[in-house]
């Protein structure tokens, strides 16, 4: 058991990262899907990808807005976890704040930057290659740092959370690749 103030991290806490990882991916993709659907596109949805069923969007700008939906929903998930932590201080809300940050950072750094939503959005808007990625990561990291502060989660504790997130990230990626085969 790892101690966080008076709130111990136990195996239940680490096991929570498994469903949180899958839920975070699905929620991120739900952002793409819901924006696309709201704009009148017939969208298809999977664990790690959303696309227009017709092979194209109704309006060219719809692809941009749909792309923004994923990172926006990742930020919403972390922000909601922050609100819960602010009000009730449950340790079990921390993975919901942490994992979207880790997932976006992992994807941007190791998933092929140019393939990620943030790179495509920046290119579409013509605002510099790393602008949107930087904005998204700064917002998410700020939320995680605030949650860490409120819950008194230190560097040592976060190193264990980082390992759990890595294992779960690889589990989601492996599951997605397995589903495709």
3D structure, described in words:
The protein is mainly alpha-helical and 181 residues long. The chain has one domain (8-176). It has helices spanning 11-38, 60-88, 94-110, 117-125, 131-151, 155-180; strands at 2-4, 7-9, 43-45, 50-52. The longest helix has 29 residues, at 60-88. It is globular, with a radius of gyration of 17 Å. It starts with a strand and ends with a helix. Mean pLDDT is 95; it is low at 1-6.
Short account of what is shown:
The chain is 72% helix and 7% strand.
Walk across the major sheet and give the strand order: 1-2
Shape: globular
What is the domain total for the residues?
1
Report mean pLDDT, rounded to a whole number: 95
Please bin the fraction of helical residues: over 70%
* Cα-based radius of gyration, to the nearest Å: 17 Å
Number of helices: 6
Main sheet attributes: strand count, strand direction, barrel closure? 2 strands, antiparallel
User: Residue ranges: pLDDT <50 for 5 or more in a row?
Assistant: 1-6
Structural class: mainly alpha
Helix-strand pattern: EEHEEHHHHH
- Note the gap between the termini: 38 Å
Q: In percent, how much strand structure appears in the residues? A: 5-15%
Number of strands: 4
């Amino acid at each position: 058991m790892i101690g966080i103030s008076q709130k111990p991290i136990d195996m239940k806490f680490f096991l929570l990262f498994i469903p949180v990882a899958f839920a975070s991916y699905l929620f991120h993709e739900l952002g793409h899907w819901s924006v696309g659907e709201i704009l009148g596109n017939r969208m298809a949805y999977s664990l790690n990808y959303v696309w227009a069923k017709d092979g194209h969007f109704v309006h060219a700008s719809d692809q941009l807005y749909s792309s923004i939906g994923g990172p926006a929903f990742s930020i919403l998930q972390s922000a909601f976890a922050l609100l819960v932590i602010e009000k009730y201080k449950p340790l079990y809300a921390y993975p919901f704040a942490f994992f979207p940050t880790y997932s976006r950072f992992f994807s941007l750094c190791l998933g092929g930057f140019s393939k990620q939503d943030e790179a495509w959005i920046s290119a579409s808007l013509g605002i510099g290659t790393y602008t949107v990625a930087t904005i998204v990561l700064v917002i998410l990291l700020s939320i995680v740092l605030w949650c860490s502060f409120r819950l008194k989660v230190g560097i040592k504790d976060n190193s264990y959370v980082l390992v759990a997130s890595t294992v779960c990230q690889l589990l989601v990626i492996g599951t997605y690749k397995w589903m495709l085969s």
